[in-house]
Amino acid sequence: MFKKCQSKCQADKHLWIRNSVFYYMVELPNENGKRRYFVKSLHTTNYYEAQEKAKIMLETLNKKDYEAKAYVLAAKIIMQKLVFDKDTKSDGTEVIRISSKNDPTVLKSAFEIVAKELDLSTLPKADQEFMQTFAKMVGDYLISIGAIPQPKSNPNSNHTIKEIMESMLKKAGNVKSVEQNRRTLITKMIQNVGLNIDDKYSKFYQPDIIQKMCDNITAMNVTGTVKRNHAREIKNLITHANYIDPDTYKTNLLNLIPEFKKTRKTERNPHWPYTNDELKQIFDPSNDYFNENPDMFWSVMVGLFLGARTNAAITLQYADIVNIDGIDCLKFQDTHPIKQLKNDASRRTVPIPKQLLDMGFVTYFQNQKIKIKAKDTDFIIPHCQTESGEYNNKFMTRGFIQYIKDIGITANNPHKLDFHSLRKNANQRLEEAGVFETFINDIIGWEGKSTRQQSYSNHDLIKIKEQADKLRYDFLQPEFDYWRDVMSKK
């Protein structure tokens, strides 16, 4: 939740606070009756630094906004001065084109406006549409006089579905793992309607094909959110083809795609914490899994004691293990492209609970750093990356998740049991130890349910350390003693 910064400074009217971090927020013109905002993090908790950054942001945005408005006004004035020719197509449609009889000075001014790279995003939709129409008319004129070449586009015979898809994915700029997931999803949907990804796009661009794909999505036994994701990829293909060749590929097929409702949070199957018996089974010395996979052991420890989500737990770097005023801590921060923290509350510095320290967590990685001559920027869990340097999203599913399945741990209800369940265990142990919710938020990395929890319940490390040390699994101490000795020899 954002909280308004109460100040009378001109820049401060756009300053908002969320979890003590300052944001720049400005309202944009309404679109279809909906309010829109431009929001950008200023990446600071210092008021004076935020104020200076907001002033710069205000000047930059205002300059771009005023420049765009000025060019729209200029384009409208030029439009009134232009002379047009009217042609009639064979189907009776009337076409209006810029005439060659125009004053060269007026034409030159029109060319200069079209050539200017403007940010029109803050302008009303009507102005954006006018500028698009203006640019197209000028472009058509330049093509007619041979000033720029005619676009070579014959989509019905040249473009394949794969070409449209790859162009779309390239423009999206996703990380490779996300890009590959999208590519796989689209390819599968295409194959399910009897097409091949190398077929001509014109085969996909048919009402019956789009309808068949939508019927397949509707029939899927998955959540509404998953159905929305599938439908969105169909929309993306249609929209991107229109972007490539708007004259040939219209967007009217979008009307065939139904709206799938998001799965409500109350309808989702929540994660379930592991029972004490299940935890004892996981760490049972007779299971040799952690002996062969020490990196997985420590990743599970981070989830169990600090409630870290999967990405945060396995992408820690050596520089993230710090000692602040004599307190050993872990810093969860997005200092690398593959680190994908969920929100601002996830970015935190947390004292390491005593029971985890006693197991030799810090000592183990200090020794590893020396042993392999690692740099501060190296990951403590090297397998968090693939060979190509992308985030290894299969590390946990093919490791820990497969391990608990192999030893027979499965949910006996609709709830989920996976790595995220360890986060539930951490929260549960803190609650049972009588730790206040605001401290749990600091340790686990939750935003909190109220403005008071999010913005006013800030605690220093010493106090958080006192509460974090209450997070203990005494019933697992025999197992922890065993694994401490095993890990000390690695």
Describe the structure.
- This protein has a four-stranded antiparallel β-sheet.
- It has helices spanning 47-81, 104-115, 125-144, 161-172, 176-191, 201-204, 207-219, 224-244, 276-282, 289-292, 294-306, 310-314, 354-358, 361-372, 400-406, 420-432, 437-444, 451-455, 461-468, 477-488, and strands spanning 3-4, 15-18, 21-31, 34-41, 84-88, 94-98, 321-324, 327-332, 348-351.
- The two termini are 45 Å apart.
- It has 20 helices and nine strands.
- The chain is α+β, with helices and mostly antiparallel strands and 490 residues long.
- Strand 5 (84-88) and strand 6 (94-98) form a beta hairpin.
What's this entry about, in short?
The protein has 20 helices and 9 strands. With 490 residues, it is of the alpha+beta class.
- What's the total count of β strands? 9
Q: Give the radius of gyration.
A: 29 Å
Order of helices and strands: EEEEHEEHHHHHHHHHHHEEEHHHHHHHH
- Give average pLDDT, whole number: 83
Please mark out the parts with pLDDT under 50 across 5 or more consecutive residues, or reply none.
Answer: 7-11, 152-156, 450-456
Strand order of the largest sheet: 1-2-3-4
Strand content: 5-15%
SSE layout:
Blueprint: E1 3-4, E2 15-18, E3 21-31, E4 34-41, H1 47-81, E5 84-88, E6 94-98, H2 104-115, H3 125-144, H4 161-172, H5 176-191, H6 201-204, H7 207-219, H8 224-244, H9 276-282, H10 289-292, H11 294-306, H12 310-314, E7 321-324, E8 327-332, E9 348-351, H13 354-358, H14 361-372, H15 400-406, H16 420-432, H17 437-444, H18 451-455, H19 461-468, H20 477-488
Antiparallel strand pairs: 1-2, 2-3, 3-4, 5-6, 7-8, 8-9
Helix pairs in contact: 1-2, 2-3, 4-8, 7-8, 11-16
